[in-house]
Amino acid sequence: MKVFVILCCAFAVALGASNTLWNDTDLDTLRNALLKDYDTHVRPSNSKTTTDLWVGMTVLHMEIIEATSTLETHAWLKMNWTDVKMKWEPAKFNGIDNMRLSADDVWQPDLTVYNSAEDKIVDHYAKTNKIAYPSGAVLWVPTSKFKTYCSLNLKMWPFDQQKCEIKLGSWTYDANQLKLRLSDDPVELKHYYKNQEWVIVDSSVEHHQTKYDCCVEPYEDITFYFTLSRRSPMYKAIAVVPTIAIVFMVLIAFWLPPDAGEKLILNGFACVLVCVLLIYFSQLLPVMSETSPLIVSFYSQTLYLLSASLIISAFVINISRKKGHKALPSFIKTIFLDNFVETVFACKSKAAEKAEHTVEDGNAGENATKDWIRFAVVIDRIAFVVYVIIFICMGFFHFV
C-alpha cells in the first residue's frame, strides 16, 4: 500500500513538472492576441471601406486539350490584401516582423474562376500558408490548377495558334467591397516548364467591371489572355509530308503507258492512304461544328480527285486495250489529234509513235486502234495538266 501511494505521488509530481516545462513563445503570444475571437467569414474592413486585392500569376505549365476544348493551367496565384485585424507592433512582441498562418486561420477573398470547366465545384487553390506582416498586409501564393473553357479554331491545324483566357473574379463581393488590382508584374513566365507541343507566344491582362442582371452593384474581374502556338514537327511528318507523296502518285499515273494496269493500282493505293489518314484525323481531332482543319479539307478533296482519276484511268486503259474499235469519230479526231492539241499535250508520245510504227497502213481496224491509243495518250496528258493546276490552287489555298 505504501508503495502504491509513493508511486502516485511521484506521478503527480512528474505531471506537475511537465505542465511547467512549456512556456508560450513570442509567436504563440502574438497568434493568440491576433486570432482571439477572429471570424474568418467576415471581411476584415469596415462596411463602408473597400478591400484592395492585388493579383498576379506565375504560370508553371499549360496544356490545351482539343477533345474537350479546354485549357489546363498550373500556376502560382499571388494575392495581397490588407487585414486590419492582423496589425501589431513588433516592439511589443520581441521584434516579430512576420508570421505564418494556415490557410483557414484568417479571412481570404473568394476569388473564383468564372470560365471554369471543372465538372463539379472545387477549390482552385491549395491550402498553403499565408504570411502576415505588422502593417496588416497578408500575402498568399497558393499553387493553383485551373481548367477553363477555350474556344478553339483548328482551321490552320497543325500550324494553328489558340487564344485562351482565365477569368478571375469575386463570387460574392461587389466592386464596392472588393477592389481588384493588378500587381506590378501580373504575368510571370520565368518558372514556366516548356510544353512539348505548345509554346506561349503572347500574354496580356485586362481589368473589367460588369453589371449583371442579378445585381445592381458592379462586379470586377481580371482576365488573363494567353496565345499559344503549336509546335508541329511531328505533325508535319504525319499530315503534310504524305500529301506530297499522294500528289506525285496521282500525277505519275497519268504518265504511265495508256494500257498499263499499274494506273489503277497506283490510284487505288493513294485512295487507301488518304482514307487511313482521314480516319486518323477523326480520332485525333474533335468534331468542329464551325470550321474544319484545312488539311482535312485538302485530303477530302484529294479523295474526290482520286476517284475521278480512277475513272479516267479505267477509261484510258479500256480504249487502249480494246481491239476492233470503230473508227474514232471525226470531230474527236479533228479536235484532239489533227491539230496542235496532240502536239502540245501528247508531244508525240512513245506510245503513239509505237502505235504508228506497228500498225500497217491500209488496215482500217488497226488504224482505228492507233487513233484510239493516241486519243488515250492525249486524255492522260490533258488530265495531268488539269490536275497540276488543281493541286497548285489547292496547295495555295490550304497551306499558304
Automatic annotation (TrEMBL):
Keywords: Membrane, Signal, Transmembrane, Transmembrane helix
Domain Neurotransmitter-gated ion-channel ligand-binding span(s) in chain numbering: 29-231
Signal peptide range: 1-16
Domain Neurotransmitter-gated ion-channel transmembrane, chain residue ranges per copy: 240-353
Lipid bilayer topology: Multi-pass membrane protein
Record's keyword annotation contains Membrane: yes
GO molecular function: extracellular ligand-gated monoatomic ion channel activity; transmembrane signaling receptor activity
Location in or out of the cell: Membrane
Protein's recorded name: Uncharacterized protein
Taxonomic path: Eukaryota, Metazoa, Ecdysozoa, Arthropoda, Hexapoda
